[in-house]
User: Fold this.
Amino acid sequence: MNLSHRLGAALLAGWAMVGGAHAQDDWSATSESFICRSNSEVREVKTYVSRASAGGEEERPGCRVDYIKNGKTRLLWSSNTSRAYCRGKASALAAKLASTEHFTCEPLHLERPQ
Assistant:
């Protein structure tokens, strides 16, 4: 299975996991992002964390990973319970791009919103 088929399958899995909960989430906080460059392309892997709370309770540890290719953003993975899950998936995708697709990936140093 090639990378585009795997990413497509991951996209479907990600959408299934997302459900309707994200409509109330604030995904403005970005962390663990990578920019990957080849001779002819630039791609980004961005991890977002949720700043939403569950009914006035403590902040939930939600996250998602977006993949930006040819100017189009696709949600690949998400979790409502573990931000580490998204960090791991984002890092693994950047490593895979670097090893199998001839990209050079580097982490983006983003400022966290206050």
